[in-house]
Amino acid sequence: MRLSPIWRVCSGAESHGRDQPVKKKLAAVLSGGAVLVLALTGCGSDNNEELDSWAKQVCDEVQPQAKRIASANAAIQKETSDNSTPEEVQKTDSKAFHDMSDAYKAIGAAVDRAGAPDVDNGEKKQKDAVKELNGISSAYASLKKKVDALDTKDQAKFADGLKDVATELDKLGKSGNNALKTLEEGEVGEAMGRQESCKSATAPADAG
Fold it and tell me: Helix %, strand %, coil % for the chain, to 5?
């Protein structure tokens, strides 16, 4: 798996063996299926028209945002040259984090507009998922600000700053998406799995 541009710049400045575990974790986070809301596994056969309608509304709105997140990840992965300048890396990562922030905010808004799904504790599951999505959006917005504030004139300082960004990204990756998983349990996941827009938006994770 190709490493993110963050680590190419670091290796061009001062590379230390102790950084390798964090580098691998970051690369896995960046390439490992960031579309958290689409972790679907089943395609149930018991149709529920009301639930299917809910799922279609959500999936149709999520699809373009899922593609936006995938494109942002791809942009970060593509910037892998050892010769990448700090300015190039900063620009790429800043835009990627901006796009991810906007996409997760839009997904949260889509789930919010759809209302509660017709399942047990549907309202709580929906509200918790919206809160979680908005939190992920805010986290990426914060990462963008940190990347934008880095000093690109000093490559060693820039590399050190990126390690701090990587630490935050690693924490974000470990924070989980429990509310989204809970929302997608059982009938909701089955209903979403029946929607073509959710099927096309879901991409296999590559964390290896």
Answer: 75, 0, 25
Count the alpha carbons within 13 Å of 50 in the hemisphere toward its beta carbon.
6
Report the alpha-carbon distance of residue 78 to residue 180 in Å, rounded.
29
Q: What is the pTM of this model?
A: 0.76
Q: How far apart are CA 202 and CA 98, in angstroms?
A: 21
Instruction: Fill in the amino acid letter for 34.
Output: A
Token reading at 35: 């579309």
**Per-residue buried b or exposed e for 68-78, using 16+ beta carbons within 10 Å of the residue's own CB:** bbbebbeebbe
The Cα–Cα gap between 1 and 3 comes to 6
Please state, in angstroms and rounded to a whole number, the distance separating the CA atoms of residues 93 and 6.
Answer: 8
| Beta-carbon contacts of residue 41 (< 8 Å; ≥ 6 apart) | 189, 193
11 pLDDT exceeds 80? no
